[in-house]
Design brief:
With 379 residues, the chain is of the alpha+beta class. Helices cover 31% and strands 24% of the residues. Bound molecules: glycine.
Length: 379
């Protein structure tokens, strides 16, 4: 950023949780920010579909094929959530129901036990605290669990936030700021001598989730200009919500790919993992299978009723980690590809992006998530 720009004008393409959080941080540091979103309601894509888990341990500590620094990134961001939710609440008087944890990771099969042993080993290696629970202790910790469970890990690092309340509160918080504007529609971007430009703005940040590579820039797409962005792959996921029962569950419980996350008035159950799928049409068989899996983990949920079902689309990447940083020589920036951790990684993404866009700084941790890591594979 030129030192002469004390209050730069920044365009953000995409107003999901990542675009909104970047806007929040940039405005806090004095920038003028305009968010462009083609959806009628901003934040109604992956950010709305999510379960709001802030789960560095379960999602990233022992995730096969993940970027080796993903756990560090997730852990650091989890630690920033208390400040972020507090600041949003102070400005808007809205509680986004942030809980720092714990969550329970439960084994139902011998294979799950092996998975949890691997997770415990990874956490021990990093000196991250957790408790090993016998099947009986797991039921004591969360009475919804099937008595036949095969033991659990209690993960104090893994909490949650209500992602829908969060998106709404963050939009309200941004709307209250004079230097932030929302535009419904596409931005008239152009490519001029290899640079991505938008008239009236000093910098452009792309944060359009799984659709980032398809954003139009003049008569081409962003993916044609920066081919590494084509590595962002849609990964659909079916989810459902039960009504809350008076007797629980009270904690987030996870087992394999299944999770049950208590929210105010509902219990979210997820999720399928459907790589390459861009349809949000609901397949009732997938919902029936999720319901049956939830019943097997927590038999009391047979008394609950499904009140909502949906299918969202995660922005996957080959190393399950986001691309955050400058887009080569285009002059533009990207913050996309957060896969399963978009809500968790919002605060740290915003911080990395503001450091990079406003101050030209990239920390050692941030450099591990540069989009350049995929450049060779797509050149
Ligand atoms: N973060 C959970 C999921 O993507 O299903």
């Amino acid at each position: 950023m030129s030192p002469s720009l004390s209050s730069p004008r920044i365009a953000i393409i995409g107003a999901g949780i990542i675009g909104l959080s970047c806007a929040w941080e940039l405005a806090k540091r004095g920038a003028h920010v305009t968010l462009f979103d083609s959806g009628f309601y901003p934040g109604r894509g992956a950010s709305w579909a999510a379960a709001g888990m802030l789960a560095p341990a379960y999602e990233a500590a022992a995730e096969p094929g993940a970027n080796p620094r993903l756990f560090d990134l997730c852990l650091k961001s989890a630690g920033q959530w208390t400040d972020m939710s507090g600041a949003i609440a102070a400005l808007t008087k809205r509680d986004v129901l942030h809980s720092i944890g714990p969550s329970l990771a439960v084994a139902q099969t011998a294979e799950d036990r092996i998975h949890l042993a691997g997770l415990a080993e990874a956490l021990n290696a990093r000196k991250i605290p957790f408790d090993v629970l016998s099947p009986g202790e797991a039921v004591q910790a969360e009475p919804c669990l099937h008595a036949g469970n095969k033991g659990a890990l209690r993960l104090p690092t893994d909490g949650q936030v209500d992602n829908r309340l969060l998106v709404e509160a963050l939009i309200r918080a941004l709307e209250r700021q004079d230097q932030v504007a929302f535009v419904t529609g596409t931005a008239p971007l152009a490519l001029v001598q290899g640079k991505i430009v938008l008239a009236g703005f000093d910098r452009v940040i792309f944060a359009a989730g799984w659709e980032t590579a398809s954003v139009r820039v003049g008569d081409t797409t962003l993916g044609d200009i920066a081919p590494m962005l084509r590595k962002i792959e849609p990964v659909a996921g079916h989810m459902l919500a039960f009504n809350r029962l008076p007797d629980g569950p009270e904690m987030t419980v996870r087992s394999g790919a299944l999770y049950i996350v208590p929210k105010a008035g509902r219990l979210i159950v997820g999720a399928t993992v459907e790589p390459g799928e861009t349809s949000t049409r609901i397949d009732s068989d997938a919902i029936n299978r999720l319901e049956a899996a939830a019943h097997a983990l927590c038999p009391m949920l047979k008394r609950a009723t499904i009140i909502e079902a949906w299918r969202g689309i995660r922005p996957g990447t080959p190393d399950h980690a986001p691309m955050i940083g400058a887009l080569g020589g285009t002059g533009a920036f990207v913050a996309a590809g957060h896969y399963r951790n978009g809500i968790l990684l919002a605060p740290i993404t915003a911080q990395i992006m503001a450091d990079s866009v406003l101050d030209g700084k990239t920390s050692d941790l941030a450099s591990a998530f540069s989009p350049a890591r995929f450049a060779a594979a797509t050149a």
